[in-house]
Amino acid sequence: MTDDDLSISEQKNWAAGAPAAVHALGHGTRRMGVRRMIATLRDVNQDGGFDCPGCAWPEPNDRHIAEFCENGVKALAAEATTKRCDRQFFAAHSIDELRARGEHWLGEQGRITEPMHLAPGADHYQPITWADAYELIASELRALDSPDRAAFYTSGRTSNEAAFLLQLLARTYGTNNLPDCSNMCHESSGRALNDTIGSGKGTVQLDDIESADLIVVVGQNPGTNHPRMLGTLETAKRNGAHITVINPLAEAGLRRFKNPQRWNGLVGKGTPLADDLLQIRTNGDLAFFAAVNHLLISEQAIDRQFIDEYTSGFDALAAAARDIDWATFTAATGFDPDVARSFVARVRRSDRIVVCWAMGLTQHANAVATIKEVVNFLLLRGNVGRPGAGLCPVRGHSNVQGDRTMGICEHPTEEFLDALAAEFHFEPPRHHGHDVVDTIRAMRAGDVQVLFAMGGNFATATPDTEVTLRALASCRLTVQVSTKLNSSHLYTGEQALILPTLGRTERHVVNGVEQVVTVEDSMGIVHASTGTLPPASPSLRSEVQIVCDLAERAVPGSVSAIPWSQFAGDHAAVRDRISRVVPGFERFNERVAEPNGFVLEHAARDHRRFHTETGKAQFTVNELTFATTRADELLLQTIRSHDQYNTTIYGLDDRYRGVRGGRRVVFVAQDDLDARGIAAGAMVDLLARSDDGVSREALGFRTVAYDVPRGCCAAYFPETNVLVALDSANDAGTPAYKSIPITLRPHRAAP
Ligand SMILES: Nc1nc2c(c(=O)[nH]1)N[C@H]1C(S)=C(S)[C@@H](COP(=O)(O)OP(=O)(O)OC[C@H]3O[C@@H](n4cnc5c(=O)[nH]c(N)nc54)[C@H](O)[C@@H]3O)O[C@H]1N2
Ligand SMILES: Nc1nc2c(c(=O)[nH]1)N[C@H]1C(S)=C(S)[C@@H](COP(=O)(O)OP(=O)(O)OC[C@H]3O[C@@H](n4cnc5c(=O)[nH]c(N)nc54)[C@H](O)[C@@H]3O)O[C@H]1N2
Ligand SMILES: [Mo]
Q1: Cα(551) to centroid of ligand 1, in Å?
Q2: Is the domain of 426 the same as that of 558?
Q3: Which of 67, 147, 539, 557 has a CA positioned 20 to 30 A from the CA of residue 13?
């Protein structure tokens, strides 16, 4: 439980620079060796190479010879590692033994080399042939009394082709139970944007950010999670942009950036990025943007012509915006009213505004309302659908946006289902399926009994870990298509399968033909990705092939209309089908052959056409809420360290925040520690407020005195997911991972 090597030092105020290059290369060579590392890095994010599995930030058209970042190298090294987790490994380690190890150790064991089966009651995984594994899944699926007893999960690394086929498999089988990582990620953005601008996607391209004159980065830590974004911000800055950061934490990457791809970035002082750092109280953003919007309306600092021509609902907003309750504003944000006033003054001097956001906005109870208020903010001054301005939800997983475009969604539109039905001659289920949280609830109730997961780590990325593990244990069968070992292989249903798959970096040749996959980045750019490394093991199968092989056995009736076996070896044929089902993908094969792929059309961005109910961009009136805590409580947000990719833990350091050698830490303001008589460095337990009578505790964390607003605190996930109640999920189904009321208690050993 304790991390004895833990050491804490000063928080950094700059990111990247030479240390990033040194850490990247050290990390890469340890896992891949020098030659393999050079071969890998040469091809990442290059034309003819593969898309970095790190994040969804787009590549610029004029690519640098080294179009990657420190954390991209870590993501690549995790996949291209030379270590192997083979049948001897599974024979040597029981499930109980592996459970005691934790995600970091599990991820370090290397690539899984062949299909493995955990039989009912067994304590070790045993090898199984692909044919037997498919037969087992097919027979379990056939045995269910309704297709809705199965769920098909997707994590956002899955290619467009695999995602399209997976949703087709689920729907020909008969269910819309297609939960995906997006439910825990940007679902709130998708919901808010769909309701207001008629598309769930952002409206900017890289050159919009580079030519904006005000960029607001809110609820996002790009220095760790989207490091290449810092290069874009640096360019914007050189072009004269003002950058305002809204974040409870003074994240290093947003303060000063030393671009490791430039000589003066390696040795010089770097570029200051944030001009203003507004250290807001966690979850105060709705109150902040509401106040700003009220001021803009009362000062008539709005674009009347745009509002009249393109929007609806302005009068209702203006009527609701008559007075501002500054006491509530201050309680929610921690700010003096002048903070809003001077931000508004800056806004009034700015013709082109971009707002970028990520999990700091989406993972709250009121996330949808908050993002709608951000939309109001941009609409008021016509900052949607013109160059240099717009909405920029920064996606997480490298293809999470593409997976949704391909139909991975539990609430598909009628148009999508109609197109699918016409193309493949079957009647897809029309009733909505389960998202992530509802899948867990359904498992708990015995209503979902088979989970098929295309990647990811369902067991620990999801909320309410103890509840979720029990729910998984009540399933008949859980199947993970994976590259590497994680907790989801250990907390399983009565039986479990691990189906090992090729990663992005690996060459995939079928019948002598090199197979290419495609992905869509955060800005709607679709491009090809071709692996170049030899597969980690000859027994690996591609995600596409696994879906096709399984579909033939699980839904034999579909074979006459769907040439699954042809698809398995001919991704171009899959793309032809996609081009006829998914709008915007016309002439898919032809257009994706272009060096940088193609940009998907976006009616709001390109033409100021809004596919909403009113046909206009929609202003919304949002009830002002914010997370409140009792005097003894702190509001906990759960975040990523610099050494992790979601539940894959690369190492135990969080360099920019000054943490080394441990992850069980909680960042608290010194005054809050003093008020509780707790010393910095003391060992505490985190106890979640219990609204439902269930006690949720995370034991054994060191306190770190940190620059965070009073009443707020932070700790890493997934260690803290035990504290997040399933029922914290908001109206978009996203758990409130970033506003968990907790109390600190001096540590007591578990009974
Ligand atoms: N290296 C690396 N890259 C990644 C990932 C990774 O784990 N590692 N994960 C990928 C994925 S799936 C995703 S979704 C993205 C995540 O990218 P981020 O959203 O940047 O990730 P988080 O660590 O959750 O950081 C949330 C940020 O929001 C701030 N914040 C929290 N609550 C609030 C609030 O109430 N208001 C405001 N204004 N700010 C708040 C936090 O202080 C923090 O800076 O990154 C992707 N890229
Ligand atoms: N408390 C808290 N919880 C959170 C969050 C938070 O901020 N706070 N963030 C949420 C967010 S934004 C997200 S996106 C989810 C992430 O949820 P997931 O996407 O489910 O989790 P990951 O940790 O990204 O999944 C890692 C696993 O994916 C597998 N994998 C890696 N590459 C491949 C591949 O190419 N193919 C296949 N088939 N498998 C592969 C590996 O086996 C690896 O162990 O977590 C959510 N959970
Ligand atoms: Mo995410």
Answers
A1: 36
A2: yes
A3: 67
Domain CATH code at residue 663: 2.40.40.20
The DSSP string of 525-591 is: EEEEE---BPPSSTT-B-HHHHHHHHHHHH-GGGTTT--HHHHHT-HHHHHHHHHHHSTT-TTHHHH
Neighbours of 142 (CB within 10 A): 12
CATH code at 403? 3.40.50.740
**How far does the chain reach from its first CA to its final CA, in angstroms?**
14
Nearest CA-CA partner of 706 in 661, 748, 654, 649 = 654
| Residue 228 is assigned to a structural domain of this protein | yes
pTM of the predicted structure, to 2 decimals: 0.96
Q: Please indicate, yes or no, whether residues 665 and 733 belong to a single structural domain of this protein.
A: yes
* Residue at 252: amino acid letter: A
Looking at the structure, tell me whether residues 446 and 554 fall in a common domain: yes
Q: Which of 394, 426, 446 is the last residue of a domain?
A: 394
* Res. 2 pLDDT band, cuts 50 70 90: very low
Q: Last residue of a domain, which of 394, 411, 429?
A: 394
Joined tokens for residue 39: 């071969």
Q: Is 734 helix (H, G, I), strand (E, B) or coil?
A: coil
Cα-trace Rg, the chain: 25
**217 lies in the same domain as 319:** yes
Helices (H), 582-696: 588-592, 603-607, 670-676
Neighbours of 593 (CB within 10 A): 13
Residue 103 alpha carbon to ligand 2 centre in Å: 12
Number of domains into which the chain is organized: 3
Query: Distance between CA 207 and CA 421 in Å, rounded?
Result: 39
H helix count then E strand count, the chain:
31, 33
Residue 243, CB half-sphere, CA atoms under 13 Å: how many? 27
CB 721 near ligand 2, within 6 Å = yes
Ligand 1 within 6 A of 221 CB? yes
Cβ atoms within 10 Å of 24's Cβ, excluding its own:
25
The answer, yes or no, to whether any atom of ligand 2 lies below 6 A from the CB of 500, is no
Q: How many A from CA of 6 to the centre of ligand 1?
A: 23
What is the residue range of 560's domain? Answer: 129-182+399-479+486-602
Closest-lying ligand to the alpha carbon of 489?
A: 2
Hey, which of 152, 157, 529 would you mutate to test ligand 2's pocket, going by the most ligand atoms within 8 Å of its Cβ? 157
Buried b (16+ CB within 10 A) or exposed e, 170-206: bbbbbbbbbbbbbbbbbbbbbbbbebbbbbbbbbbbb
Residues 557 and 705 in one domain: no
Q: Which ligand is nearest to the CA of 104?
A: 2
**Tens digit of each residue's pLDDT (9 = 90 or more) over 665-701:** 999 999 999 999 999 999 999 999 988 899 999 999 9
Atom of ligand 1 nearest to the CA of 642: 1
Which domain CATH number covers 246? 3.40.228.10
659 and 721 part of one domain: yes
Q: 72 falls in which pLDDT band (50, 70, 90)?
A: confident
| pLDDT tens-digit map of 254-312 | 988 888 776 666 667 788 899 999 999 999 999 999 999 999 999 999 999 999 999 99
